[in-house]
Structures are given as structure tokens and as C-alpha cells.
Amino acid sequence: MISLRLVNSRVGHFRLTDITFDVADGGYGVVIGPAGAGKTTLLETIAGVTRATSGQIILRGEDMTTVAPERRRLGIVYQHAYLFPHLTVRENVEYGAASAADAEDAADRFGVEGLFDRAVESLSGGERQLVAIARAIAAKPEVLLLDEPFSALDPRTRGETRRQLRATYFERGFTVLQVTHDFAEAGVLGDVAIVLDRGRVVQKGDPADVFHRPVSPYLAVFLGVENVFAGTARPIRAEAPDWRDAAGDQFAELPVAFTTGALTFYALGDVVPGPAHAVIRAEEVSLSVEPSMSSMQNQFRGRIVEIVPAGALSKVTVEASGTSIVAAVTARSVRELSLDVGREIVAGFKATAVHLC
Amino acid sequence: MASVIVAIVASLFLLFIVGPVAGLVGSGGGRGLASLVSDSELRQSLSLTALTATTATFLGILGGTPIAYVLARRTFRGKALLAAIMDLPLVIPHPVAGIALLLVLGRGTTLGSALYAAGLRVAGSPTGIICAMLFVSAPLYVSAARESFARVDARFEAVARTLGDDAWRAFRRVTLPLSARGLTAAAIVMWARAVSEFGAIVILTYNPKVASVLSYDRFTAFGLQEALPVAAVLVLLALVPLAALRALRKE
Asked: How far off is chain B from A352, nearest CA to CA, in Å?
């Protein structure tokens, strides 16, 4: 388990302030946040190479706040590998390993045993990263701290390494805290997501919840939400339509009318009337030729102004009454609906897809 | 046109440096090498110089390395002051440094007499030479060693620590090998500076004479011709650390 209680630390002028979160024993925590948020400092503070000025760091139930790094039984893998350049690959992997067999096992898992006699300088960036992961695993840590460990890897190796790390994680049962910029990765890997900004935890919880319900528009933009609207929210208790969910029950949250520019759409939430932001992920926006008769509470006719293919999905921007709404649709939908720039289309999203913050 | 002027100025400057040295070696080099065989005082003086400079360098490494490391790695109140103190001997005129050392270590002083009572004579002994050399040349070692440490990313140590090394072991297994070349260069620079020191040594210990004091002594007592071989040998001796530094950088 990794438990931080009001941890503060300082590196130069940068401060981590009152960091509090828990990652359960054998859990997988993911730290996300913009550049300069303090993600690496957080890992280094947990590792003990940066001193916590106050607060408590508890690892596996033991208070480790003032314990030397070498006695915390943890490993750290940096984004830039930090392989010891004066040692061979084998010597690097064996560095913290209790036995040569442990080193060989770790090297085997991450496919670096073939590099054993090579000099570190001769390795590619991806190879270095794999060796760094193997080096940390070979020391059999109980807590593994990963600072964007897959960023130097090509997509294929990244997938394999992630799977291998995952398998090792399940087999050994260590606890992981990983810094990532890749939101998909955070969703795939994490049990808990911790969002850091300017040295503070601004949100934490289930990764899916963090991604769909960011606490601020700034965070929403950082998390890659395409539709972030500034506007005015107005609870509409009395005049609300009688919405029901799939099971036919009334929604627990209150209906809200949100106005941005010339558009007004419905949302659900407990908000005070006044300025607010509405956040809608592009995957939640669907496109149709005619208004759908389903439970889609918000539907706007507009014109397609841009289609950007992005992997398996295409991002289609529809301008409706002067407001741009981005929808992520499959290539098949683009074909079937004959989507093209200039074409008139209906963009729709449910009130439940709108997150107000 | 501008580049021609720059080239002329640069050439003149180069000539200004090379000219006297080449002249000295040209006119006294042969006799200097010959006197290495015939002149026992010169031989003794050279071995004394090498021995005291090496001892001073060793002491400089011993005392200066931890300071250089702390200056490179840690931030603390008074760090700028510590760095300034370490640089102080570089800006003090060297005879003044000698006088300052004499004030603390001379026989008339508390520390000096205590050391004398303990059987360690400072002024007028090889110990005095070592003290003078250490005082004036150790700052060069500390500042170069500090830079060498700073060039080694602290995260290498962080990784070593998480892999089970305590601070000393991480220093020994990672930081030291990674900064070894820079530290060696720093030690060579310190040694060379110690060998060439005159001002502080001459105040603290005139006799026994190190090579620089000997060349000065021969010049004042017997004139230029007598001083030439000693001076030329000193120049040739200075080429040794210079070559070592070049080799180290090329490696």
C-alpha cells in the first residue's frame, strides 16, 4: 500500500503541498498532470531521494517518512532510464538484484537478455528503457514507481512491455504508482487516478470518473476533452421535462439548462445558478441525418466544418448556431452518413453526458 | 578586414605567451637537462617539489572532495558563503597568503607552537611547503571537482539508492566512477599549480628550497645565467601535467 498524508516537500522553488492519497496493497495508481505539476517530485518524495518536509509516507503499513531510500524496498524507473553508463547492460540489471538468477529472470521477462554484453551507449532509447524496467524488477521491489516508463518505446514494444509489466505485477503482487501522459494508458492500467497540478492533488478517484468528470475546465482541456464550453447554468427544477433513465426511473440529479453563446442545452447536476463550464467528451456526441427520436435530450442542427481522422475514429466538428461541437465517430459512420465538410447534420448528446464544473 | 585584425592580434598574443617560454627552453633547456645529472641541489629540489606537491594534492583531494560534492549536490543556507570562502585563496596575493599562514602556523603562534611541541615544525620545513601549496591550489581542485560532480545527474544516485545502496555506496559505485575523469583532471590542475607556487612558499619556507624558490635564489645570488637551467627544467616539468591533461581529454 502507498499512503500519503499531507505530505509536503520542496525542490528549489517548487513545492508539493499537502499531498494525500492511497493506493491499495497490490493496487495500480496512475498520476496524471500537466508538465511542471510535480509528478516526478512526487515519486522522488515517496522514494525518499527528495525529503518530505512534513506529512507521512506509509508504505505497506510502515511509516517510511524518514527511512533511507535503500530501506524502503521500492524501485523507480525514470522516463530517461538513467542506466549507469560505466557498466554493461548485465551489470546494470544485476545492480540491485539479490542473485544473478533474479537478474536473468527480469531480463528474460523484458527481452533484454540478448543485450547483456552490450555497452549502455550502444543501446537505442527503447532498449535503454526496457533495461531500466528489468533493472528495477530484478531488485524485487514491493513498491514500483514508474515515471512515464513507456514513452521511449515504439507502439508495438510499448504494448508488449505494458503486458509484461502487468503480468509481473499480478504475479509478484507489488504496488505500482505510475506517472503517465497517456490518458488511454491511465484508463487501462489504473485502479486509482491522481491528478496533480502545480504541486497539489486536484482530483483523485476511479480513472473513468476522473476522465468523465474533471473538476475544472483547465483539467478537462488537459485530459483531452474536446468540448469545453463556458456559459451560464440555470437549474430548472419546475420547468424540467420528465426525463427517465433506461430503467424508467427519474434521474436523481436535478436538470439544468446550460447556455453557451446562442445554444442552450440540458444537463444534470447540483449547481448554483451562474457562470459555469460544460464538459462533453467527443465520444458522447453522436451524429445523425435527422433528429433522433430516442432519449437524446440535446440535438442541434449544424454544418460540418472539419473532419480529422484520428486513429480508428474521426473527429468531426459541427458548427451549430455559432458554437463548435466535436463528435468522435467511426470511419464506418463517416461512410454510412456520407459525412463531408459543408454537409448539414444533427449533433446530439444526452443530458447525462454533460459534466458541469 | 576585421578577421585580419583579429588574426594579427591573436598571433601577437600567442607569440607573447610562447616567446618567453620557448626562449627560456631554447637557451637553458640543454644545460638544464645536463644539470639534472651534475647539480645535486637541483635534483633534491625537484624531488622535494614533486613530493610536497603530491602530498598537498593528496590532502586537497581528501579534504576538498567532500566540500566539492556538497557544493555540487546540496542546497543549504550559507552555501554561497562556503563557495566564496573556497575561492578566497585565488584572489589573495600569494605572499599575503604566506603571511596569513605564518600568522597561524608560525612558531610564535599558539597553533604553531603546539604543533612544534608535538614534533611537527611547519615554518621552514617541507610541512610548511605543503601547507602553502595546499592553501593556494586546493581551491582550483574544489571548483573543478564541484563541476565534475555537478555534471553527473543526481538521478543516477537516486536510482542506485532505490536499488539498495546507502549514500556512501552509491557515491562509490556510481558518482565516483562517473566523475573520475573530471576529478583526475582537477587533481592534475591542482598538482601543477602547487608545483608552480612561489609567493606563499617563499614566506613560509625558504629552506629547504622547492624548484621555484631555487630558481629565484639562483637568480638573485648568481644572476640570469645560473637561474636559466633551473627555470628551463621547471618549464619542461610543467609540460608533464599539461600532456596528462591533454591525454585525459582526448580519451
From this structure: 46
Q: How far is B175 from chain A (nearest CA, A)?
A: 10
**Sheet of A2-11, strands arranged across:** A14-23, A2-11, A52-59, A62-63
- Domain spanning A2-212, CATH architecture: 3-Layer(aba) Sandwich (3.40)
d(CA A30, CA A21): 11
Q: Is the pTM of this model over 0.90?
A: no
What CATH number does the domain containing B98 carry?
A: 1.10.3720.10
Mutate to test the interface with B, among A43, A49, A174 (most CBs of B within 10 A): A49
- Find the mean pLDDT for residues A112-141: 94
Confirm if B123 and B112 have CB atoms less than 8 A apart. Answer: yes
DSSP string, B108-141: TSHHHHHHHHTT---TTSHHHHHHHHHHHHHHHH
Q: Could you tell me how many helices (H) and strands (E) chain A has, helices first? A: 9, 20
Closest CA to A165 of A221, A208, A109, A116: A109
State ipTM. Answer: 0.81
What is the DSSP-derived secondary structure letter of residue A95?
Answer: T
pLDDT band at residue A293 using 50, 70 and 90 as cut-offs = confident
With cell 567532500, the residue in question is B66
CB of A149 less than 8 A from some CB of B: no
Strand order in the sheet with A28-32: A74-77, A143-147, A175-179, A28-32, A192-197, A200-205
Top CATH class, A222-356: mainly beta
| DSSP 8-state class, residue A258 | E
Our CA-based measurement puts residue A327 at a distance from the nearest CA of chain B, in whole angstroms, of: 43
User: Cβ separation of B178 and A86 shorter than 8 Å?
Assistant: yes
Chain A residue with minimum CA distance to B76: A12
Cross-chain Cβ contact A78/B155 below 8 Å = yes
